[in-house]
Design a protein that fits this description.
CATH superfamily of one domain in chain A: Cytochrome-c3 Hydrogenase, chain B
Largest sheet of chain A: 4 strands, mixed
Number of helices of chain A: 17
Strand order of the largest sheet of chain A: 2-1-16-17
Structural class of chain A: alpha+beta
Order of helices and strands of chain B: EHEHEEHEH
Structural class of chain B: alpha/beta
Oligomer: heterodimer
Radius of gyration of chain A: 23 Å
Number of strands of chain A: 17
Strand order of the largest sheet of chain B: 2-1-3-5-4
Largest sheet of chain B: 5 strands, mixed
Distance between the termini of chain A: 41 Å
């Protein structure tokens, strides 16, 4: 075939394949999924029918850089909080911190404390949502429970209607606090360069003090439930510590001056697979420590430790792959800054055999430890005499150039990096989101799960669930990794033979 | 783009709720249909029109106490041309998404609310507009989807009035 004919042939082929794929798709229209957004896993078998490689693909969100270019930097906290409906507050706060850096201005003390109060409230709310609603079906109901029970109603069945009411009501009160300062949760108007837009009125303080106190009780109660239902079950503990869900990588997370976990501010710290410190660095130096690797099969960028160089998807003492999220934060820290969280932290490492813990599924437990810290930090902040100060903002005067802001999002470290002209108009904008930081380790987890369930061309039943569990523990914000839509990703697995021909397609809606 | 809300109270008998993301091209269509519905209805007593860019469990906060619920949203099935309006009744909704622990859908939200003893709408209808591009940051609908807005709005208005 000549080149033109070949091109036409290929194009026709693509269309035919797309049409066939569309017909075969098992479609459920449920508009809260809103968009198709399948997580796709492509599995390639070798000539013996064993897994050669398995790749995870997620839908890509396009045009972020183009959309931002030419806009005032002050719009970025609103724009970035709108690209992800799951963690708007994390994007908003990282962006506000990037603006501080851009205008070289420190927020006032009260402004910083209000930001931290809102941020810890958000972390608690998001973690609670994950423990009870997203991860709960796996852990509270159980990974071996019948599929029909593995949902939020199954969780309510286990913990009781009153407990369910408590979760929903607490979550609502926490969101009301966020809305008090920022208006809408998805479109918060709170963080400004040099502080925040609204002080806390002293007359409103008592209700927030009560909320913070109740939040501590709520976090303690969550830990009790976790103890009873998860740690009290030897099968769960066996699953958490099983090889299938264990990877010896490095870890990255933010710590305060005493190397304790901090979600809002601090230095970034990296430990290796034996728990030894590899480096610590300030947010604005991240490009010297973190680099991005690209693979031909994915548009995702796989971050790695720059000074170690890219050695592929490997684990062990030499690996440059690191992980973020609750487990990573506990692994990089020397402890927690509040007493109840510290006690829970000590128990965590005692039960799981010391630092660092490499079991991906331990993220669920680490999340509960962090809920305690977030709630205790809320109590500290609402009892701080400065919290009702009217001095919530400093007006910037410096000429802007570059601004880098970092926070610990619920799912891990989140970087915002903006370049502007001297008027503060965006010239370029880049984000490294939590799941990007975790991308390499997630790829390893998916491949290992696939290898465990496909042998000599035979696909074990339950493949979808096992492969899904492999990346679900990282918290499924895969949409966010490519700035795409958040939420649930129905999973599609395509298995190709050694001639790269599609031989089987499985869809989990 | 400003997001506006009707001032009609939550306990109104009929709630029209537009869902979507106003900076993701076609994903804004549910919000835009809601705005058009509000324009056509004006201040009709007993009908509230709202928009939200949030997802999942937040829906519970929005729909509690409304008597009847009409949702408007974007959907991409790939089976019909962009701009086509799917109309989905409660019988077509899975009550519980059995194999998807990481997802709270409409059916599941209604069942959860009922289990917790919250007042859930007695009637639910969903209008889902098939979209072409929900993955590019942008504030303009694609042509076919933009053309579908008046028709979708008219169908929502008719149903809302008939439910009063």
């Amino acid at each position: 075939m000549d080149e033109t004919t070949q091109k036409l042939f290929n194009a026709g082929n693509l269309r035919a394949n797309a049409a066939t794929a569309a017909q075969r798709r098992n479609i459920t229209i449920d508009p809260i999924t809103r968009l198709e957004g399948h997580g796709k896993i492509d599995i390639y078998l070798d000539d013996k029918g064993d897994v050669e490689r398995a790749y995870l693909q997620v839908p890509e969100l396009r045009g972020f850089e183009v959309f931002c270019r030419g806009r005032p930097a002050e719009d970025m906290p609103q724009i970035t909080s709108r690209i992800c409906g799951v963690c708007p507050t994390a994007h908003h706060m990282a962006s506000a911190k990037a603006l501080d850096a851009l205008y070289q201005i420190e927020p006032t003390s009260a402004g910083r404390k209000i930001r931290e109060l809102v941020y810890n409230t958000f972390m608690l709310e998001d973690h609670a949502l994950h423990v009870f609603i997203l991860g709960g079906p796996d852990f509270i109901v159980g990974p071996e429970a019948p599929p029909a029970e593995r949902n939020i109603l199954g969780v309510i069945g286990k913990v009781g209607v009153e407990a369910g009411k408590r979760v929903i009501a607490t979550r609502r009160r926490l969101r009301d606090l966020i809305a008090y300062f920022g208006g809408k949760v998805v479109h918060p108007v709170l963080g400004l360069p040099g502080g925040v837009s609204k002080p806390l009125n002293a007359a409103d303080l008592p209700q927030f003090r009560q909320l913070a106190q109740d939040a501590v009780g709520f976090a303690q109660w969550t830990l009790e439930i976790f103890h009873q239902l998860v740690l009290g079950n030897p099968d769960y503990v066996k699953l958490i510590t099983s090889d299938a869900y264990t990877h010896r990588t490095c870890y990255l997370g933010m710590v305060d001056a005493q190397n304790r976990v901090n979600f809002y501010d601090g230095r970034l710290r990296v430990v290796d697979c034996d728990g030894r410190e590899v480096c610590t660095f300030a947010a604005q130096d991240y490009r010297d420590y973190i680099a991005e690797h690209v693979e031909p099969w994915s548009y995702m960028k796989f971050t790695f430790l720059k000074q170690r160089g890219w050695h592929g998807f490997t684990e062990g003492p030499e690996t440059s792959i690191y992980s973020v999220a609750p487990l990573a934060r506990l692994n990089v820290a020397d402890g927690m800054a509040t007493p109840l969280a510290q006690a829970a932290y000590e128990e965590f490492f005692k039960v799981l055999g010391g630092k660092p813990v490499h079991h991906t599924l331990a993220n669920h437990w680490a999340r509960v430890v962090e809920m305690l810290y977030a709630a205790e930090r809320m109590v500290e902040l609402v009892n701080d005499p400065e919290i009702t100060s009217a001095e919530v903002r400093r007006i910037p005067t410096a000429v802007p150039r570059t601004g880098i802001g970092v926070v610990e999002a619920p799912r891990g470290t989140l970087f915002h990096d903006y370049q502007t002209d001297e008027r503060g108009v965006i010239k370029s904008a880049n984000l490294i989101v939590a799941t990007g930081n975790n991308a390499a380790r997630i790829a390893m987890s998916v491949e290992r799960a696939a290898k465990g369930v496909i042998k000599a061309g035979h696909v074990t039943e339950g493949l979808l669930n096992k492969v899904e569990m492999a990346f679900r523990a990282y918290d499924p914000c895969l949409g966010c990794a490519t700035h795409s839509l958040p939420g649930h990703l129905p999973l599609k697995v395509r298995i190709h033979d050694h001639n790269r021909q599609l031989v089987r397609e499985l869809v989990q809606e | 783009m400003p997001t506006t809300s009707s001032t009609v109270s939550v306990s109104s008998r009929v709630l029209v709720l537009g869902l979507g993301n106003d900076i993701l091209t076609d994903d804004a269509v549910g919000l835009l249909v809601a705005r058009e519905v509000r324009r056509r209805l004006g201040d009709t007593p007993g009908i509230a029109v709202r928009e939200t860019t949030e997802m999942g469990l937040t829906l519970l906060d929005e729909i509690v106490d409304c008597g009847s619920l009409i949702l408007v949203d974007a959907v991409q099935t790939g089976c019909v041309p962009p701009g086509q309006v799917h109309e989905i009744g409660p019988d077509d909704l899975p009550q519980v998404t059995a194999t998807s622990p990481h997802f709270v859908g409409v059916g599941e939200t209604l069942a959860l609310g009922a289990t917790l003893g919250l007042a859930m709408p007695r009637r639910v209808r969903i209008f889902a507009i098939e979209v072409a591009d929900p993955y590019t940051l942008g504030t303009q609908l694609t042509t076919a989807v933009a053309q579908a807005v008046p028709e979708a709005a008219e169908r929502v208005v008719k149903l809302a009035r008939s439910w009063m």
